Amino acid sequence: MARVAQVARLCANAAAFAALWLGLPDGPRPTQAQPHETREAAAAPAAAEAGAAAALPAELAKLATLPASQQARGLRAAARQGALEKLDDATLTALFQSLDPQAVPDYIAAGPIGYPSYEFTMLRQERIDGKWSDKPDHMLVKVTREPLRVYAKWLPDGAHGGQEVIYDSTKRADEMYGHLGGLLGKLPMWTALDGTLARAQSNHQVRDLGTEFIANLYLSEARKYRDAGVQKPTRIEAKTIGGVRVIALTYETPGRPLFYAKRATLGLDLRQPYFRTVESYDNDGRIFERVIFEKITPKSLGDSEFDPKNSDYHF
Where is the signal peptide (predicted)? Predict the structure, then answer.
């Protein structure tokens, strides 16, 4: 009986999902995706993999025949209303395998790929000067976009624990203010965003922190994927990474210098059009970057959150 109830629940979720998707009005596409309209309308039916479509409930299998623009709009509605995250792993995987290759890029391009003001915790691990970090950074980050301001704190259970930096584009656009961790690291100083100190700990600038950078990089790479004929992911699977359930999309490319990574696995959030996890591999097959956004919280952040005199900070 429990098994029957579970199957009934899954069928109900799939039916509700399909009704939501297929009931969408055929409104205008996002401006960013317009160049693909003519191509996708003809190619969409062929884009669905027979195996994936066969594995889907009948209601969802119909979605594979839609053009990418409608699939992208359907993803947006389904994600926002919680329908995506209600699907079990097998159905979620089969659904994304059945989509037109352009559907996910169009979905991401329509946004929003972040928030005007938000806070998040993240795990970040990188290969610096050829050496892979044994321990990931565990960070608390606060960001506003207009103006661009960033506060980052390295939490004590990760690498570089105790370190803090503040970046405020309205004060010094090319510098950040910060201090190292430990007893000898409490002397704050101004340093260049891409200076020796910054590059010793990350291949990215503090301005790159957030979901927007990864989404924009994906969109840039997606255009190159199409040109190189590798637009469809080589692997698609629903999985939980670092406690975060995502649909993981793996792309394999000719590698550097043309592409950011030889192989990249990006974990798409099930409620918002941005990525929660990233793993990137170099031309030799070595991982050089791993990022997990553990928790993302939109919130209003005032001036005091980016002031080194804040009593909660240790500048």
Answer: 1-18
